[in-house]
Amino acid sequence: MGSTANGAAAERRTATSNGRSPVDKEVDFANYFCTYAFLHHQKEMLSDRVRMDAYYNSVFHNKHHFIGKTVLDVGTGSGILAIWCAQAGAKKVYAVEATKMAVHARELVKSNNLHDVIEVIEGSIEDITLPEKVDVIISEWMGYFLLRESMFDSVICARDRWLKPNGIMYPSHARMWLAPIRSGLADHKMSDYEGSMDDWHGFLKETEAYYGVNMSVLTKPFSQEQKKYYLETSVWNSLHPNQVVGTPAILKEIDCLKVTVEEILKVEANISSLVTKEDTRLCGFGGWFDVHFKGSEENPAESNVELTTAPSQDDGTHWGQQVFLLHPHARVNEGEEIFVNFSMTRAEDNHRLMKVDLGYSIKQSSGKMLPRVDKKFFIE
């Protein structure tokens, strides 16, 4: 009886890479996967025209990658990518979905008369077994600032298990970007923090006056909580290009055919940015990503499609940009250079969230280097 229980417990847990603590699969499902089981969540992604157009064009402008081929769609969701692959000529598509959204995907496939081509499989990619290797793996795995959610781990697992040696990945490449920005959000967040502390101090006075208990010993931990929430947690935002005050720089480049999980556990970069605005505020840094559908060296795409989440004055994406706000802000001028040390790792208590250490220094036009400033952020 004990061995059976231990075996069941082992099945509920999956070891993470690089010797990190095991992740309870049931907890992970409750915290992460279950959100994708709702149609309203799928609708948000399906309504993102930039996202949809990029995948649609990458498939239908590169039909030679799909005609007569076997395809694996990792995290199929509604099943729309699998449907496009079949419509482009794939002979077989395995559409894998970890949540009950698989039921809806199966219905959608059948209603589009593609059930003879597409097989919807409910289960995690780490656990399922396919009857054959595939020519193409397609997946929309990108989270906020590319790597939040850590879904790319599952795509890498699928690649290593099921992709043929000469197979291709859709998307094939990815890049992470960072640039200095100006934003009124920094002032708003500081105001929110100060307001929460004013409210706390009023609460302390009332509690002592009415109930005779002095709770001021909790002021420091309360302040730390509020600082993390308002000042140290990066925020999602849809930036306008005019808010970018310096040249963007690449933090990391990824070849989806070759990268390992170990290589994405930590993103480290030393970059610089040249200020492009005259006498402006440096209020933080904005991060975004792009992915490309290039095929492979042996089997390149006929049409190289890019999906970018860079700041846009037209149609943005549901990913927006990840914004790391500075308190206090600094003043910079055109021609000055900002040097940034960036490090992003996974949170210890939730491998799908991230923590960031960011240090920056400014080289003024006179050549003087201002003291380095170090900040910590959380991507939640």
Automatic annotation (TrEMBL):
GO terms for molecular function: histone methyltransferase activity; protein-arginine omega-N asymmetric methyltransferase activity. GO terms for biological process: methylation. PROSITE patterns: SAM_MT_PRMT. It comes from the Eukaryota. Residues 1-21 are annotated as: Disordered. Residues 191-363 form the Protein arginine N-methyltransferase domain. GO terms for cellular component: nucleus. Pfam families: PrmA (PF06325), PRMT_C (PF22528). Signal peptide: none annotated. Ring-like homodimer. This is Protein arginine N-methyltransferase PRMT10.
